[in-house]
Amino acid sequence: QVQLVESGGGLVQAGGSLRLSCAASGRTFSNYAMGWFRQAPGKEREFVSAITWSGGSTDYADSVKGRFTVSRDNAKNTLFLQMNRLKPEDTAVYYCAAVETTGLVTTDLFYEYWGQGTQVTVSS
Description:
11 strands; mainly beta; globular; 124 residues; 7-stranded mixed β-sheet
């Protein structure tokens, strides 16, 4: 079992930045590929970013490419999402997720563990 706890969300003006964190516990963090997803009101959950167990490979949704950066610190069991140049359309609840695999996983159906989410609100 893996427990995931997100933090770092909040209210920010358009053009601003936030850094989300996802603290993991319960199993060996470095065994898990990680992902970030988000869900806006009235919309389906969507992929944001993913990273392999080593951090050697990453992927991003086209809507955030060039603005968001995913990283991880396996020594601290923590996943990060640096979000720059935020837009109102980035407003959503952001979730981190984990799956025990060596690959890069961009589909939510394959993830085994999820955090409770953190709200990000970008005002115009």
